[in-house]
Amino acid sequence: MSYDNSFHINQKNNPSHVAIIMDGNGRWAINKEKSRIYGHKAGVESVKKSISFALNHNIKILTLYAFSRDNWYRPEQEVTSLIELFMSALAIEVELLNRHGICLRIIGDITVFNNLIQDRINYAEMLTKNNNKLILNIAANYDGRWDIIKGVKKIANKVKKGLLSPEHITEDSLEFHLATKELPAVDLLIRTGGECRISNFLLWQIAYAEFYFTNVLWPDFDENVFDTALKSFYLRERRYGRILTDTTK
Length: 249
Prior knowledge:
This protein has a single domain (about 15-145, about 185-235), classed as Undecaprenyl pyrophosphate synthetase (3-Layer(aba) Sandwich). It has helices spanning about 25-30, 35-55, 75-100, 115-130, 145-160, 170-175, 225-235, and strands spanning about 15-20, 60-70, 100-105, 135-140, 190, 210-215. Strand 3, helix 4 (about 115-130) and strand 4 form a beta-alpha-beta unit. The relative contact order is 0.19. The protein is built from 7 helices and 6 strands.
C-alpha cells in the first residue's frame, strides 16, 4: 500500500483536535513582580484568544490543561485562588460559550470539588451539550495515568459482570472509557513556558500527536503564536509508524 505524502497548506490540513498545556502563568507574574494568581488571571485572557482562534480556523476540538491532580501540592493559597478563578470563569463565560455554539466538557475527577462547583459544571455541560461549532475540553483535576486506570477499572467491572469477555477487549474498548470518549485522538499538542515534557497529560490520546514547544509564557500566548504552531504542524510528515513508499521504483 502506498502512502500519500502530498501536502497543501489550507484549512483541510488543520488538526481536528488540538491540546494545550498552558504553562508559565506563575513565572510571567513573578517577572512582573506580581503574585502568581495575577498570572493565572492573565492566563484566562489567553484561553479566550485560543478559543476564538480555534473557532476561526475550523479546529473542531480544543483541550486545555487547566489543573492537574498534582497541582494540589502547590501552596494552599494558590490552589484556593485557582479554584475560585475556575468557579468565576464557569459562572461568567458559560453563556457566552453557548451563544457561540461551543460545547463545554470538563474532563477529570470533579468529585473532589465542592457541590457548588459540581453544580456549575453540570449546568454548563447540560446547557452547551448540543452545540457543535467547537468542543472545548477543560481538564480539571486530571492526569493521564488516572484516566487510563479509570478506564481499565470500568472494563474490568464489565468483565466481572460477564458483560465483556477479555478476548473482546480492544483499543476501542479502552478509548470508549476514557475522559475523551467518542472524540478523535489529539493531532497537535502545544506546550508553552519553555518546558519540553507532557506532564502526564492525555497519555493515551497523544500517541501519534505532533508536539510543538514554545518558550512563550501562557499569558503571552496569542493568535500569532497559535498560528505559528499551526504552520509547524502543516510541515510535519504524519506517518503513524509507517514509511513512505517510493512509487517511482
